[in-house]
Every structure is written in structure tokens, then in C-alpha cells.
Q: What sequence folds into this?
């Protein structure tokens, strides 16, 4: 159990004990918050519970805090608990318990994990790009954010399904087929041109060339649908391969077309009609979204009989609800700001509470090269693909920079900074902490010693304030994972990784291991310390989907 949970439970029990003794009156206890004070002089943890209870208890916060502290049992984790005005309960961890965190980190590969979501099914939907072209940077950001959230949710006990929704039933796929067919005809010498609405990237010509190489000119009589299906399937495979290059894997690939093939779109529409949420006007089918707080009703089926995008999206989320997920996280770009709520209104109209669905919107990604923004346009083919970016900077900088800011903020991806081998580059700064730990053990082994020599080290010798400060920072991992799993904001792990590295590097500079002036007992204790640090950085890097290099 994370230490902040243990402290919250201890304070809850102390409040109840104070109530039973008459030191505090009866009231319903709100959730006990445990915080990290900004000033280390105020302890390692603090709780403002006494201020929260002042109105309920009709007592001064200071008196409430004193009553709570008087009923706190002695805990081995704690060195000191004291009250500070206007009523904070400040808590300082014991040095011995902090030192023993070295052994705790070494003993488990999943340090920081706990059972917040045990027994619960969660789904994370992200990327969900149209199969009409290579993965763009915006879709990459959603994918990295989603995969990072999935890793955090698994770390706190959820059974997570990563899902990709292929929008393969719309007009864009038809336009894709037309684009490939026109390029195919051009390769055969025919005088035809692409319209502005067609896809014009070089990859369209590549697809047409593949068809020409395999079939010659025998496909001229094939309908556009043939070219659409070929291009869709080929691009879908390429998208999967591109995402794997940045360590994004999906458990389920859900095709929009399947919702038409199995009749789910029309079943959802019929159910909405039966419930009275659909009416006809101007030969179109309208959804009464105003009954759910929308500013106007929305069209579900056009006058042509073709569903709008809302209808399959409603059917898809209806399917999610019926699959029994207790938590669904949808990651979308800024273009879904208005439409995502309308889809959930449809699920509500179909009879499901949508509190289990959390929509996470992220802003755009701008690519910066040599201080200037690179202009990008998907349809014109004037853009940098995920594959090109991986080729230029590698997977790890992409993983980090895509979550380096809150999803509400745009990302300026500085390609020059991403490959810089200096502490200015946060990727280098974080990974170099792992490299430094690995270097200690490499030199230790080169000197003829084994790592086992330190197994019985006396951890009580780890008394340097920088060592203890690093261990305090290590303890925050479980709280970071909990924050990610409840706010669905993956940038917290990127911030934590940087702060952890910032706590490590000064420690490395002054808390030496292999220097001649370090006595053997302390040397062995520090070997354990750096072994724990190495494991912790590997763990945090893995939670971000990044590698943990031994050398750089």
C-alpha cells in the first residue's frame, strides 16, 4: 500500500478514535487528503483535514488537529507528527524507513504499483486515424498519451484493453481509392488529374506503383472500391508498423465498417427512434440532443439516407458500454471538442450512464526545425510522418516530448533539442541517470567484484541528505500513478521523471562509490542505493514507453 494511503487511513482511524473518546463530536468524515508540503521544513507529508473539519466539528482547526494527533498510533514509518498553524498535521518519515526503501525497490520490478483498479476492466481508445495515409504527429501525440495512460492504469491494477477504431466507412476512404486509381492510370500513361479533394502525397503514387508491379495494366476495369480496399488494408498495416516503432501496441482493432456489416448502426438508430429521441424534419433524421443540454438538435441521418459521423460513433460507444468496461478513456484531437459530448448523449439516450467514459482532448503538435515551424498538410502530402520523425530523432524523444506538456497545451517539438546530448535535453538528462547507475556497476565488475557482494549491506549508512532526498522522491511514484489513473493526464509521469533525475544527478556527484576514500561498508550500501536507483529509472522509463540505455 502506498505510504500516502497508509497515512490517510491512520488519520481516519485517529479521527474516529477521537470521536469515540469524546475529543471530537460525531460527523461524517470526508476524504482525508495527504499532500506533499512545498517546503521540506514542514515535513515529508501533511494533511489539511483539520481545516476541512472545522465547520463540521464547530471547533478551531488547531484544536481538531491536536485531538487527531493525540490519537494517532505509533507507526514505524514515522519519525515525527506535529501540528502547525492554522491546523496542518505535518508528518516526517523516519530515516530508517526511508533507508529500507532501497531494499523495497530492489525487491520488486513494479515498484509503485498498487490495487486501485483491481478487478476492473478499462479500455483506452487512441490514435483511431482514418486509414488514408501515414500516421501524423497529432495522431502520434494521442497514441503516446493513450499508451502512457494504459501503462499507468495497468500499474494500478486495471485490466486494460488498448483499442484502435478504424474510420474505414466514410467518404474519405472512397476518396483514397479514387486517388490511387488516378495515380495508377497516370502510371499507365492516361491523361487524368487529381482534384484538390484527392490525396496527393507520394505514398499514393507508391501504392499505385505496387499495384502496377503486381498486376500490370489489368486493373483498369476494377471499381473504385477495389482500390479503396487495397489502399485501406495496406495503409492500415503500415500504420500499425509505424506505431510499433514508438512502442505502441493495440489489443483490438475495431473497424467502423463492422458496425454496418453487423447492423449495429441501424439497431442503435431504431432503438433511439423507439425511445422517442429521433424525429424527422426536412427528410432527415434528427436526434433530440437538446434534451441532454445541447444548444440545438443534431442530424443523425442525412436526406440522402447516409448517416452522419455521429451515428456510427454512437453505435461504437454503445458497443463499448455493452462490453462491460468500467472505465473508458477516449483520446481525441481538438477537432472533437464539440462532437464528443454529442456521442455520449446518444449513449445516455440508449439507456447507459456515461460516467464511466472520460474524454481526453489534446492540442496540436508543431514541428520545429532550426527555430522555424515546419508547415504540414495531410491531404496535400506536405507533412512529416511518424516514420520520418523516428528516423531522424529516434523513438524515445518522441515518447517523452509528446507527454511533456498537459494535453490542454500544444507541443512544440524541437527536433534539434531532441537529439542534443546535453542536460538541456530532458530525454538525455533522464536516461543519463540510468546510464550513470549502469556505469557504476560496470566499473565494479571490471574491478573483479560481483553485485552479490553488496546484498547484505548496512543500509543505515545511507545518511547523506541527498540520498534521503532521492528516496523521498522515489516514494512519490505511486501517487503519480494514482494521479494519472484518476485525472487521465499522462504528463505527470514526464514531470516526475525529470524531477527524479534532478534529485539523482547531484547525489551522484557527491555520494561516490568507487573512490578510494569511501570505506567498504559505505561503498556496499551505496552500491545497493545505486542499484535501486537504476531499477527505479528503468521502471519510470518503461512507464513512459522509453528505453533504459546502459551507455550513451
A:
Amino acid at each position: 500500500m502506498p505510504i500516502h494511503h497508509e497515512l490517510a487511513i491512520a488519520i481516519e482511524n485517529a479521527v474516529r478514535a477521537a470521536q469515540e473518546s469524546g475529543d471530537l463530536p460525531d460527523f461524517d468524515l470526508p476524504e482525508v487528503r495527504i499532500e506533499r508540503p512545498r517546503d521540506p521544513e514542514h515535513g515529508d507529508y501533511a494533511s489539511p483535514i483539520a481545516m476541512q473539519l472545522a465547520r463540521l466539528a464547530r471547533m478551531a482547526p488547531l484544536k481538531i488537529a491536536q485531538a487527531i494527533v493525540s490519537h494517532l498510533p505509533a507507526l514505524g514509518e514515522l519519525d515525527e507528527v506535529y501540528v502547525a498553524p492554522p491546523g496542518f498535521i505535518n508528518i516526517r518519515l523516519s530515516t530508517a524507513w526511508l533507508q529500507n526503501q532501497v531494499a523495497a525497490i530492489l525487491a520488486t520490478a513494479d515498484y509503485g504499483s498498487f490495487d486501485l483498479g483491481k478487478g476492473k476492466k478499462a479500455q483506452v481508445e487512441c490514435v483511431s486515424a482514418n486509414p488514408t495515409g501515414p500516421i501524423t504527429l497529432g495522431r502520434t501525440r494521442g497514441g503516446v498519451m493513450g499508451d502512457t495512460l494504459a501503462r499507468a492504469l495497468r500499474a494500478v491494477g486495471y485490466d486494460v484493453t488498448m483499442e484502435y477504431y478504424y474510420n474505414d466507412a466514410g467518404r474519405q476512404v472512397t476518396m483514397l481509392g479514387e486517388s490511387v486509381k488516378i495515380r495508377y492510370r497516370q502510371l499507365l500513361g492516361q491523361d487524368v488529374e487529381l482534384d484538390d479533394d484527392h490525396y496527393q502525397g507520394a505514398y499514393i503514387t507508391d501504392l499505385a506503383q505496387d499495384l502496377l508491379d503486381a498486376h500490370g495494366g489489368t486493373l483498369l476495369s476494377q471499381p473504385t472500391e477495389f482500390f479503396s480496399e487495397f489502399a485501406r488494408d495496406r495503409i492500415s498495416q503500415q500504420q500499425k508498423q509505424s506505431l510499433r516503432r514508438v512502442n505502441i501496441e493495440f489489443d483490438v482493432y475495431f473497424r467502423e465498417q463492422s458496425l454496418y456489416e453487423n447492423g449495429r448502426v441501424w439497431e442503435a438508430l431504431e432503438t433511439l427512434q423507439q425511445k422517442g429521441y429521433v424525429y424527422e424534419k426536412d427528410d432527415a433524421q434528427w436526434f433530440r440532443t437538446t434534451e441532454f443540454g445541447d444548444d440545438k438538435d443534431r442530424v443523425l441521418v442525412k436526406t440522402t439516407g447516409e448517416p452522419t459521423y455521429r451515428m456510427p460513433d454512437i453505435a461504437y460507444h454503445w458497443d463499448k458500454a455493452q462490453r462491460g468496461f468500467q472505465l473508458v478513456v477516449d483520446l481525441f484531437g481538438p477537432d472533437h471538442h464539440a462532437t464528443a459530448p454529442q456521442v455520449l448523449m446518444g449513449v445516455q439516450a440508449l439507456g447507459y450512464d456515461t460516467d464511466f467514459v472520460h474524454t481526453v482532448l489534446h492540442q496540436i503538435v508543431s514541428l520545429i526545425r532550426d527555430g522555424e515551424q515546419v508547415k504540414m498538410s495531410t491531404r496535400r502530402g506536405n507533412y512529416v510522418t511518424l516514420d520520418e520523425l523516428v528516423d531522424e530523432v529516434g523513438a524515445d524523444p518522441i515518447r517523452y516530448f509528446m507527454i511533456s506538456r498537459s494535453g490542454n497545451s500544444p507541443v512544440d517539438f524541437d527536433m534539434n533539442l531532441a537529439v542534443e546530448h546535453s542536460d538541456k535535453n530532458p530525454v538525455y538528462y533522464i536516461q543519463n541517470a540510468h546510464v550513470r547507475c549502469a556505469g557504476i556497476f560496470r566499473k565494479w565488475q571490471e574491478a573483479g567484484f560481483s553485485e552479490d557482494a553488496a546484498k547484505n549491506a548496512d543500509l543505515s549508512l545511507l545518511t547523506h541528505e541527498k540520498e534521503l532526498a532521492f528516496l523521498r522522491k522515489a516514494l512519490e511514484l505511486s501517487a503519480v500513478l494514482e494521479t494519472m489513473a484518476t485525472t487521465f493526464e499522462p504528463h505527470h509521469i514526464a514531470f516526475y521523471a525529470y524531477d527524479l533525475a534532478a534529485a539523482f544527478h547531484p547525489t551522484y556527484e557527491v555520494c561516490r562509490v568507487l573512490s578510494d576514500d569511501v570505506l567498504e561498508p559505505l561503498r556496499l550500501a551505496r552500491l545497493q542505493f545505486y542499484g535501486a536507483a537504476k531499477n527505479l529509472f528503468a521502471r519510470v522509463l518503461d512507464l513512459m514507453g522509453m528505453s533504459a540505455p546502459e551507455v550513451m
